[in-house]
Amino acid sequence: MKVTKAQAQANRAHIIETASTLFREHGYDGVGVADLMAAAGFTHGGFYKHFRSKADLMAESAACGMARTAILTAEADPREFVRQYLARAHRDNRATGCTMAALGGDAARQPEMVKATFAAGIESLLAEMGQRRPALSPDDEARARARSLDMLAHAVGAVVLSRACPDDSPLADEILEVCRDAIVASLKPPGPVAATPSRRKSR
């Protein structure tokens, strides 16, 4: 029976979702096309009806995963997002977590199309963070973008370092805790500036 256009699109989306999960769990080189298609419920031969290459699927699945992170970033309070991002639950569940933290290292060794997808995803996250800010002058906007980029790199790097430690290592938790507290503290709005007492001129 001929597959309808709508069904073909649904099948393609399902393959991308499955790939996004498996790549995050096992890495780009840790899962082959045949295993990926089997996990999605399709035959190996059907892969090239949807994608030109494995790299093509890698790029599309990365875009899918980072789009979800951008949505979460937009919907959550920044401090709460950081607390959840730098939590043990996220650290221990690569398959359902952030694509950048799970695959950033792998992406550095992949074709340019995959790297370009990661760059676009990072820009999308920075744009979501920027929408929370009031209108700023160009100089202030540049400084705010730099702070957002610093926070993003800090959070992603903390998860990567924590995952590099043994699962039961106290250091794994320490990395998350220290970085979480530092980032949350940096997001606190500044308190009121105390008035400086005026000095009377001596006569």
UniProtKB/TrEMBL annotation:
<dbReference type="InterPro" id="IPR001647">
    <property type="entry name" value="HTH_TetR"/>
</dbReference>
<dbReference type="Pfam" id="PF00440">
    <property type="entry name" value="TetR_N"/>
</dbReference>
<protein>
    <submittedName>
        <fullName>TetR/AcrR family transcriptional regulator</fullName>
    </submittedName>
</protein>
<keyword id="KW-0805">Transcription regulation</keyword>
<dbReference type="InterPro" id="IPR009057">
    <property type="entry name" value="Homeodomain-like_sf"/>
</dbReference>
<dbReference type="InterPro" id="IPR036271">
    <property type="entry name" value="Tet_transcr_reg_TetR-rel_C_sf"/>
</dbReference>
<keyword id="KW-0804">Transcription</keyword>
<feature type="DNA-binding region" description="H-T-H motif">
    <location>
        <begin position="32"/>
        <end position="51"/>
    </location>
</feature>
<feature type="domain" description="HTH tetR-type">
    <location>
        <begin position="9"/>
        <end position="69"/>
    </location>
</feature>
<keyword id="KW-0238">DNA-binding</keyword>
